[in-house]
Amino acid sequence: xxxxxxxxxxxxxxxxxxxxxxxxxxxxxxxxxxxxxxxxxxxxxxxxxxxxxxxxxxxxxxxxxxxxxxxxxxxxxxxxxxxxxxxxxxxxxxxxxxxxxxxxxxxxxxxxxxxxxxxxxxxxxxxxxxxxxxxxxxxxxxxxxxxxxxxxxxxxxxxxxxxxxxxxxxxxxxxxxxxxxxxxxxxxxxxxxxxxxxxxxxxxxxxxxxxxxxxxxxxxxxxxxxxxxxxxxxxxxxxxxxxxxxxxxxxxxxxxxxxxxxxxxxxxxxxxxxxxxxxxxxxxxxxxxxxxxxxxxxxxxxxxxxxxxxxxxxxxxxxxxxxxxxxx
Length: 328
What we know:
Helix content is about 50%, strand content about 20%.
């Protein structure tokens, strides 16, 4: 067996040597071509590297804004969370669709009309964008966005006045505490802003993405919002069921404790550690809160449905296209 292995290796070496001799003879016969062979190989490698570099999109020095991560706008003046939900880019038809959501962080309801957007490109391009403010969702459609844009910057600001601050200022002025400054009084508005960056990457290119009308974008977004509200209602149903089961368990505990108390010496420290009656009260409060949340969701669904009807009928008016600026 070992001898056969040696024979196979020997034959392989002979064949390899024969091949090397043929290559050497060819190089000897083609001396001029041999002189240009190495430079040609180096040039081919350089051309390949340049082509590959050109095909990879250039990005900015700014980090990408993560999907699903909220940023706060407005500070204490009607604070709101704005979240980048999705972005898709059709490179062939040169348009991008960006979806963002809005939610309040305080008891004050955030009015989408007070939320302002400014879109800029990192590289100068003749880009125009349209904004679709839809209840708690915003859709940005960027048009004429050519490959090589490197990145998009979206600055979101809230101009919603702080109702509580305005009431306090009005109260102070009426009492004469700020009479000296009443002539220069200005309503408090948002001073903070949220900045989102979308770098040019291949990961969200979708050349099958279809350009659609504003009506289609709006209706689809509102339908998704309705689905979200219905999921919230179902989630609250599950919570209510848990709260009710806890109440049943607490009542059993109450009955058991009342029965056992007939045969046990009262211990004030043990009695204070767990109070089924107080827990039942807490669970009932949680049920009321969950039902209130469901009521709000059902009302919001009706508003979404009304907005869908208004969009389809033309009663809901969209704003005009806006020219994007360039990041300075």
